[in-house]
Amino acid sequence: MPVMERIQALVEGHPIVFFMKGTPQFPMCGFSSRAIQALQGAGADADKMCIVNVLEEPEIRANLPRFSNWPTFPQLFIHGELIGGCDITLELHESGELGRIVAEALAQSA
What we know:
There is one protein chain. By secondary structure, the protein is of the alpha+beta class. It has helices at 3-13, 30-41, 58-68, 86-95, 97-109; strands at 16-20, 50-53, 75-78, 81-84. The protein has a single domain (3-103), classed as Glutaredoxin (3-Layer(aba) Sandwich). It contains five helices and four strands. The model has no long low-confidence stretch (mean pLDDT 95). InterPro entries: Glutaredoxin, GRX_PICOT-like, Monothiol_GRX, Monothiol_GRX-rel, Thioredoxin-like_sf. Residues 16-83 form the Glutaredoxin domain.
């Protein structure tokens, strides 16, 4: 399957998709680390999300910025829509909005 179709299938096939450098247990950059902590703090445990380690998926790493029109990692998608990267994820968490969005996404997928 072509990489753009794979990305589309991931984003559409899961309520929460997080493209990061590394894994939740071993993030490989500070931005991914802070964003995954915010997500987990908002109730999105790693087993409830689709996590893609872009360091192990070079085709996805190379093409995701073109797919999303977002140049950096991490990237958070909820219900097929790009939410944003680290800064936006942290802002949403601090405002309490991320918890609401995550809870809605998980409830709709249950």
